């Protein structure tokens, strides 16, 4: 059972970071670089978000029936997976050539940080606000905030399930660094950025599988 517990944590952390592959391939194909300092910052912020959201879920689980907490946690994770999969099926990838037009249409520079984060989730290349081809630490913070928002329900669900917070956070941090690096390398050498759409769909399917598994166990 301990091995299955660790496998669940690994798959949850992996699914939470598969969006990073989509972001990385999009950047790599467009010649946008994320230096290690920005990559590390993204990993720290997303793992901190995981820790906090899991702590919230864990706190809730202590005041409600354990079986009910487990069911809610499983449904949260599985439901998020269904939502992610549907969103990815309807996702439109934008070309770099329309980035400037998109910035004007969305009035990106005047948006709140929260709204910018939501916009970046749909159009990751907008994080490179100065079109320098380089994600600075400031731009990395905004990208990290966007990716963290995208994973909060996973963290709360994991906390309700009683998964180990420290181990899950460590997996999320390590896999965040690896998946962004892999995505950029893949995008740079293949010139393919649509590959990221499949990683999003895989992420959704993993979450659905974990939700079903945890609900019946």
Structural commentary:
This protein has 217 residues and is mostly helical. The protein has one domain (2-215). Helix content is 78%, strand content 0%. The protein is built from eight helices and no strands. Helix 1 runs antiparallel to helix 6 (137-161), helix 1 (2-30) packs antiparallel against helix 8 (195-215) and helix 5 packs across helix 6 (137-161). The longest helix is centred in the N-terminal third of the chain and has 29 residues, at 2-30. It is globular, with a radius of gyration of 17 Å. The N and C termini lie close together (11 Å). 46% of the residues are buried.
SSE map:
Blueprint: H1 2-30, H2 36-61, H3 66-89, H4 99-106, H5 113-122, H6 137-161, H7 165-190, H8 195-215
Name the features:
single chain, mainly alpha, globular
Task: Summarize this structure briefly.
The protein has 217 residues and is an all-alpha fold. The protein is built from eight helices and no strands.
Percent range for β-strand residues: under 5%
**Topology as H/E string?**
HHHHHHHH
**Mean pLDDT across all residues, rounded?**
81
Residue share in helix: over 70%
Count of folded domains: 1
- Ranges where pLDDT stays below 50 over 5 or more residues in a row are 92-101
Radius of gyration: 17 Å
Biggest sheet details? none
Structural class designation: mainly alpha
Note the total helix count: 8
Number of E-type strands = 0
Amino-to-carboxy terminus distance? 11 Å
Categorize the overall geometry: globular
């Amino acid at each position: 059972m301990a091995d299955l517990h660790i496998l669940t944590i690994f798959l949850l952390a992996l699914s939470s970071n598969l969006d990073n592959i989509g972001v990385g391939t999009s950047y790599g194909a467009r010649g946008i670089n994320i230096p290690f300092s920005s990559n590390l910052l993204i990993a720290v912020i997303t793992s901190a978000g995981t820790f906090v959201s899991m702590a919230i879920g864990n706190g809730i689980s202590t005041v409600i029936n354990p079986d009910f907490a487990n069911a809610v946690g499983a449904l949260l994770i599985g439901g998020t997976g269904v939502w992610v999969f549907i969103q990815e099926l309807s996702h439109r990838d934008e070309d770099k050539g329309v980035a400037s037009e998109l910035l004007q249409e969305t009035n990106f520079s005047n948006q709140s940080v929260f709204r910018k984060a939501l916009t970046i989730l749909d159009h990751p290349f907008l994080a490179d606000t100065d079109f320098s081809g380089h994600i600075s630490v400031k731009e990395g913070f905004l990208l990290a905030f966007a990716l963290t928002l995208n994973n909060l329900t996973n963290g709360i669900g994991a906390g309700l399930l009683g998964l180990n917070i420290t181990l899950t956070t460590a997996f999320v941090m390590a896999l965040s660094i690896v998946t962004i690096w892999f995505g950029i390398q893949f995008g740079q050498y293949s010139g393919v950025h649509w590959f990221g759409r499949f990683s999003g769909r895989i992420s959704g399917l993993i979450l659905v599988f974990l939700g079903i598994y945890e609900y019946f166990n």
